[in-house]
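Q: How would the structure tokens look for this protein?
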Amino acid sequence: DVCSSDLSLLSANLSQARNYLAGCSGNDTKGYFAGGYSSADTARTDKLIYASDAISSQTSANLSQARQYLAGVSENKSKGFFAGGATNFNQVSTADKLVFSTDTTSSFSTANLSQSRQGVAGCSGDGGKGYFAGGQTTTAAYVNTADKLNYSTDTSSAQTTATLSQAREGSVGISENFTKGYFAGGYTQASFTVTR
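A: Here is the predicted structure in token form.
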């Protein structure tokens, strides 16, 4: 739903009913929703035009592989990234780069996560770097791993100083775009959590 008092904007509905997808806030004119699950994993990407609150399938921006339970980040000007997730119930480290000016997405291996995992959370960061944190690995273990993505070089690596306070998947991340961001919620091996 749109973040206002008007909750009837059907023009902003996804082009396909699905869950476990990821969002990329894009720039100040458009944003994107990608991947997810709808009877099968999908690579589908929808583009949302902020001025008109209209959404449509953008095939040129489809993910490089069909997958669900991934995360997205944006450097808020020219590009964004979708990373991690699971395809056919197998966790992946894949990172896809989305170029806003051309609405095109392609696999970008230098931005891959440091380990294959699903249920990772994204924090768009400060325009110079973003973060992916947490998730579940191929051994079904939950992790607190954090990866830092440098937007200037499109490269990602583990950032041990940014690890989560506890191993978990299914968290969400937000950023105030300048100096700080937050990861919250999710669940651990044992139970749901409200940890910030």
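The chain has a mean pLDDT of 93.

The chain has no helices and 18 strands.

Upvote if useful.
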